[in-house]
Write a structure and sequence with these properties.
The chain is α+β, with helices and mostly antiparallel strands. The chain contains eleven helices and 21 strands. α4 (159-168) packs across α5 (172-200).
Length: 516
Amino acid sequence: MDGIQLEIMWSNLISIVSEQAKSLQRIAFSPIVREAGDLATALFDSEARMVAQAITGTPGHINSLAAAAWQMIEIIPPEDIYPGDVLITNDPWLSAGHFFDITLLTPIFRKGKIIGYCGSTIHHTDIGGYGVGAGARDIHEEGLWIPVMKFYERGKPNETLHKIIRRNVRTPDAIFGDLGAQTSSGKIGGERLNAMCDRYDLDDIDELSAEIIARSDKATRDAIKELPAGTYHGESQFDVPGGELITLKTALTIDTDIGEILIDFAGSSGPSSLGINVVMAYTHAYSTFAIRSILNPELPNNAGSLAPIVVSAPEKCIINAQYPSPVNARHVVGMYVPFPILKALTKIIPEKTLAEGSGAVWTIQVQGQDKNGQPFTSSMFNYSGGMGARFTKDGLSATCYPTGVSAVPIEVLEASIPIEFTCKELVPNTGGKGRQKGGDGQRIGFRVRSGEKWALNAIPSRLNTQPEGLLGGKPGAAGAFMINGVASNEARKLTMAADDEVLMITPGGGGFGKPT
């Protein structure tokens, strides 16, 4: 295709997926979607290959959504899909790794045939079961499992499925508000793609998607071929709720003949009895994110640029969860996946990597009844520590890396549920020293003001281990989690008294280079 014509159409596609994301955020009920951007939207071609993604979104959602789309249409093939249908699933092994992340896929019809799909994945407030915690003993304790089904059939709700979802969650109005937002954003994306086809007199986007994906694949392979061939190793250790020590090891092999990178996690920790196991789709998502952000971040993130990155892990491994492993808190381990990869890359391109940061966001969920006896469940709200220092820049303080979500403002949380924050401030000098300093962690305190007992799911990590520095940089400070001033490190859901107060101090990031 002509380069100028391709660039114009590419800009159109980015506008479409970005409008999808913005409309989803504006309509959504959940603060984690509306305020924090814990979502992904993408556009797929008729073969369900991801062509374009919105600039808003998290790696764990975006790159796993890329795999979810083609797997969903393998289960419900195109010949069984009709105008007005919307497909749905939250199957952890098909989508984003736990029940809370629900994926919707909307077919786009033109002149009676499917020319593409709009997809979205968002974190929902509640899916029944245990909640966002690590204490469930198997996946069936964790909530409602939605196989690949039709959420809407020919424009009409699947009443049976709607009733099942509504009866199995604590806050059905919030869930259906967010599902409605996903449905609307998919419809908007389809309308905008058809408008683009009208504008350029296209019957479909097959030629356009093939050109974009082929160019992205070639550019990624060309970038890999510029790296020194060989196998490079990295390792990261961190503790999780309950004090369990997790090790992630990677052997990163660069094949410059075909322009391919193989990431092998052999030697990593085995499965956990806690709900922190990670499905392969989520591991793949954060592995490809690490490579893409270092190698060629300016390229489109789509099926072509992801194809040259191959990820493998043994079956008996914490980052290749097998049924029926509990997975609801999979991000506690999954968000550490980039660190051993970055350590391996530091041996050949240190100027593009960064030191270890605090890792997984600290996830908090509170549940209970308000003063009027009405049940409430907070949307998962996240707090981050310091980001690792970079080759020429200090690490950012209180920054959600690698997930990229924003923190929900405390004013929004206090307005939506009966919670009161007692402090939220940076903790100076918790970042590791170095030629470039690691980012600082933060101190957050809160209590629930319902006057009743309440339940707490809290998933802190790095309470006993420190984020490592790189190339002589010093480690960042470990975190702390306290209830009424007493240190706590529980993996299970806790029943809290009406006047209990929680205080969290998130870890700092590691430094980069020897301190001067």
